[in-house]
Amino acid sequence: MNYQTLQVRFQDSICFLRFYRPQANNTINRVMVEECAHVLSRCEESITIVVLEGLPEVFCFGADFKEIHAEMANGQHTEHNAEPLYNLLLQLATGPYITVSHVRGKANAGGVGLVAASDIVLADHTAQFSLSELLFGLFPAVVLPFLIRRVGFQKAHYMSLMTHPISLQRAYSWGLVDEYAERSESLLHKRLLRLRHISKTGIFRYKRYIKDLDAGQGHTLSLQAAKSLAVADHQKEFSDPDNLKGIFRYVEEGLFPWQN
What gap in Å lies between CA 158 and CA 68, rounded to an integer? Predict the structure, then answer.
């Protein structure tokens, strides 16, 4: 399909989703949110990895202020419903695929939300991250639940209040970025070579388990409270005939499930 705000390509079980609004600094508008949600829905059945990318200079710069300005200049007062954006971040965080943000250049406001909602974040040496909302009397309400989940309350609080960009090195030390390299395309390629071997079923079950843990306040959940969920899912995984077949074959032949 042709999209107005995205460039999308599929390579085997990998979907490469590139934000592509060069004339608008890769900002987020209603169409981009709708198109991203549509692509992710297409990925649910058979795609195992979704790679989010932007332009070399800007990953995603948050809300499209020019679109808001145009509406106001035309005398329009449009309600800005944040639920579709929140649902998009939920799709990235909980969908049955591994989401990888490949960040080059600036990620600001909602762009940080896209990064924080991803399972894995890779970056190059140009990456920087900021929450500029409070400069305009706003605050990053949709972004914060995902950012706090990834880096903790105080670091997300600091980014919200200070508004200026944090460096790649600080983002890495805080856990917002998982790995970085000067040539991040090579790093991405290496990680995809590994990730593509994980089965769709395995990803689906793992993401569902993480979602269930999170529903029980997984990041602060006591070990005792998590016991019943952990034991039940463990039993399911080690009772699955396909999983047992893969284990048996590995012991017998020394081959991983994807190897012929």
Answer: 27
Per the domain annotation, does 56 fall within a domain?
A: yes
| Of 166, 167, 170, 164, residue with least CA distance to 132 | 164
Catalytic, 242? Answer no
- Residue 206 falls within a domain, yes or no? yes
Higher pLDDT, 129 or 236: 129
| DSSP-assigned letter for residue 166 | B
**What CATH number is associated with residue 80?**
3.90.226.10
Instruction: Note down the domain range covering 236.
Output: 200-253
Q: For the chain, how many structural domains are there in total?
A: 2
In a domain, 69, yes or no: yes
DSSP SS3 for 195: helix
Q: Which of 35, 64, 119, 124 is catalytic?
A: 64
Is residue 258 domain-resident? no
Q: What's the pTM? A: 0.88
Active-site residue, selected from the candidate residues 35, 53, 124, 133 = 133
In this structure, the answer to whether residues 190 and 205 fall within a common structural domain is no
Whole-angstrom CA distances from 243 to 47, 220, 246 are 20, 30, 5
Annotated active-site residue 133? The verdict is yes
Residue 97's closest CA among 159, 158, 151, 17? 17
Q: How far apart are CA 246 and CA 117, in angstroms?
A: 31
- What pLDDT digit, counting tens, does each position of 189-222 carry? 999 999 999 999 999 999 999 888 877 655 555 6
